[in-house]
Every structure is written in structure tokens, then in C-alpha cells.
DNA sequence: TTCATGCATCAACGACAGTTGATACGGGAG
DNA sequence: CTCCCGTATCAACTGTCGTTGATGCATGAA
């Protein structure tokens, strides 16, 4: 749930899409998105706490990037839900009798 | 985004997991989840507006079920983000030179 | 060291989302 | 028709979340 909550917000959603194109420091996101620095730090912290991104310090810059495992987990959840959903859906077509 | 916003809330998250096991009417969810009827109606409307669930009227009961396409779309988004992310990650391992 | 830059954190505010209880609607049973 | 039950909708309240500007904390340059 935490993962979904992290992504389900406009600013953070856009951050994730940016990071898909490569790691960025806060100042780059600031320029590209036209958002206040305080705002980005706030949302990046949320994403980091949820395990969706990681940060890497290089000099005075902090680079953020996506965590593939987090995206996998979300996909896995949706996959389980969907297969279960299609499971009972086809069994219903057979009149409720499971094959 | 709308889809993720719909799922990214505790009550709705649990509703989705329930519906993965088959369609339910509001009163069934009410019993299983111990939630107020007003509350469930509120969240089911959100899920419906987001296209995550559909409703089917049978007598005086309204049955809700998941919409597979919605789950597919969310999985597709996460898939695109992840492949793009892994793309630049491996190209970085090659010193930035794309093969 | 001193200054400037990049980022994190804080407090105050505003706005929106969820909860609750009451009310209204709608369909079936009698 | 009238009553009952399952749902939807509404209004009021509460709390949580995001925004903003200011401040603090590092790090590198001069």
C-alpha cells in the first residue's frame, strides 16, 4: 500500500516518470519541473520512505533514482489480483463448477 | 494517475483484494470488512469513477467486480517505467555508450 | 576561514479527502 | 398500496496531506 500511496500523487507521479529516464539531482528536477525546492525535497522523502527511490550523494549534489524491486512488487500485486479475478470469472462461465 | 489514486487508500485497497475473490454486493463487504455502509458506498463510487470496478444490479442488490483492463493499464505503466529505468542503468555500465 | 550553493527540515497555513449520521431513492415482498 | 431492506447521497466535522517561506546544515570554492 505504501508504494501505491507514494506514486498516487501528481508531483510524485511526475518525478517517477522523470527518474525513469535516468537519475537526477534535486536541482535538475527543480529546473525541469518548475517546482519549488522545498516541495521536491518533501516528495522525494516520501518516495524514499516508501522504498520507491534511493539517493546517492556526490559532492554537494544528491542524485535520486528508482528502485526496480519496488516497481516489481507493485506489478506482482496487480498481477495476483488480476489472475485471481479472472480465475473466478471463467469458473463462473462453467456454471460455478471448477475444472 | 486516477487509477493509482483509487487503489492507494486503505479501505479501497482492501475492497480490491476482496473483489479479486469474486464479485460482492455492498452488504457482503459490509459484513466481511466491518465497515459502515455509507463508507463503502463512498469508496466504491471512487473506484467506479476511476474505472477500477463495475457495478451490476440484481434485484435490490448491487454487485461490484474488478475491471481487468484497469489493472492491465497500471501494470503497463509500471512496466514502461521500469524498462526505461533499466535501460539507462545498463547503458551506464557501458560507460554511457549505447550498444 | 569565509562565502556561496545544494539540499533538508520546520512551522503555519490552506485545501482536500475520509468518516459519520441522517435522509432519500428504488425495488421486492406482503 | 404499504412496508422493509439494500444503496446512494448529503451535510457537517475532523484529520491528514501538500504548499510555502524561512531557517539550518552540509560541502566545495575562493
Give a structural overview.
2 copies of one chain form a homodimer. With about 100 residues, chain A is α+β, with helices and mostly antiparallel strands. Chain A is about 65% helix and about 15% strand. Chain A is built from 5 helices and 3 strands. Chain A has helices at about 1-5, 10-20, 25-35, 35-50, 70-95; strands at about 25, 55-60, 60-65. Chain A has a 3-stranded antiparallel β-sheet. In chain A, a hairpin with a 2-residue loop joins strand 2 (about 55-60) and strand 3 (about 60-65). Chain A is elongated, with a radius of gyration of 19 Å. The model of chain A has no long low-confidence stretch (mean pLDDT about 95). Chains A and B meet through helix 1, helix 2 and helix 5 of A and helix 1, helix 2 and helix 5 of B. The structure holds a DNA duplex (30 and 30 nucleotides).
Strand content of chain A: 5-15%
Number of discrete helical segments of chain A: 5
How many angstroms does the end-to-end distance of chain A come to? Answer: 33 Å
Give the ordered list of helices and strands of chain A: HHEHHEEH
The protein's oligomeric status is homodimer
Keywords:
homodimer; 99 residues; alpha+beta; 3-stranded antiparallel sheet; 5 helices; DNA-binding
Amino acid at each position: 500500500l505504501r508504494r501505491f500511496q507514494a506514486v498516487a500523487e501528481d508531483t510524485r507521479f511526475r518525478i517517477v516518470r522523470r527518474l525513469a529516464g535516468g537519475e537526477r539531482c534535486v536541482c535538475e528536477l527543480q529546473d525541469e519541473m518548475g517546482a519549488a525546492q522545498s516541495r521536491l525535497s518533501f516528495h522525494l522523502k516520501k518516495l524514499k520512505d516508501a522504498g520507491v527511490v534511493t539517493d546517492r550523494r556526490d559532492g554537494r549534489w544528491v542524485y535520486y533514482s528508482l528502485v526496480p524491486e519496488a516497481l516489481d512488487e507493485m506489478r506482482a500485486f496487480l498481477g495476483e489480483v488480476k489472475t485471481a479475478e479472472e480465475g473466478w470469472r471463467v469458473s463462473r462461465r462453467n456454471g460455478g463448477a471448477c475444472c
